Amino acid sequence: MASIDEIVDQLQRATDQVNEAVQSLNAAESDAGEMQSQMAAMGVQDKVEVFASVRDAVEKARNHLSGSVDLIDEATSAAKSAGG
After folding, report:
1. Which of 55, 13, 32 lies closest to 5 in space, CA to CA?
2. CA dist., res. 25 & res. 81, Å (int)
3. pLDDT, tens digit, for every residue of 12-26?
4. Separation of alpha carbons 67 and 22, rounded Å
5. Can you list the alpha helix ranges (DSSP code H) found in the chain?
6. C-beta of residue 68 within 8 angstroms of C-beta of residue 18
7. Which pLDDT score, from 0 to 100, does residue 84 have?
8. Cβ neighbours of residue 50 under 8 Å, at least 6 residues apart?
9. Residues 51/35, Cβ–Cβ less than 8 Å
């Protein structure tokens, strides 16, 4: 049978993994922004638009994952309160 501590540990691992994914998305957004700037400097407008789309999609994914951390935190609090 699982314990409250095991559940809390699993939820903390999930939080850590989501935070790591958010950091990766931050890096991807930054890199896409750099590419967008490079393409603009070279006058390649179609690529500027592509990298703008990439940045928008990454931002949406990051916002979604950041919201997941809040949900995991709620679950962690509920698990802790169930234990004590």
Report:
1. 13
2. 32
3. 999 999 999 999 999
4. 11
5. 4-42, 45-83
6. yes
7. 72
8. none
9. yes
Q: Would you state the structure tokens that stand for residue 25, as one six-digit string?
A: 């998305």
User: Cα–Cα–Cα angle for 43, 45, 49, nearest 5°?
Assistant: 145
CA distance 26 to 22: 6
d(CA 70, CA 64) in angstroms, rounded, equals 10
- Cβ(65)–Cβ(18) below 8 Å: yes
Question: What is the distance between the alpha carbons of residues 31 and 33, in angstroms, rounded to a whole number?
Answer: 5
DSSP 27: H
Q: For 25-70, write each residue's pLDDT tens digit.
A: 999 999 999 999 999 999 999 999 999 999 999 999 999 999 999 9
Among 61, 65, 57, residue whose Cα is nearest residue 14: 65
3-state secondary structure of 15: helix
Tokens of 21: 């994914």
